[in-house]
Amino acid sequence: MDSDAEVVPTPATGQEWAYRLRDDSTSQRVKILSIDRQTRKFRVEIRHLDGDLAGKEENVPRSRLKVPWNEVGQYDASMDNWKLLRSESVDENESSAMWTALELLIPSAVAELFLTPVDDALVIHDLSALESLTNHPLDALPTNHSWITYNGKPCLSPLASLTIAEWACHQNPTPVLERILAEEAEAREKSKRGGTSEDWETREPTETSPKYEYERYLRWTKPIHELLRQWCGYRSVTAHERLLAAEAEVNRLDVLLAWSLDYIRRSNESIAATIESEHETDRITPYNIRPVPQRPLEPHEIPVIEVPSRRRWPR
Question: Whole-model pTM above 0.85?
Answer without folding.
Answer: no
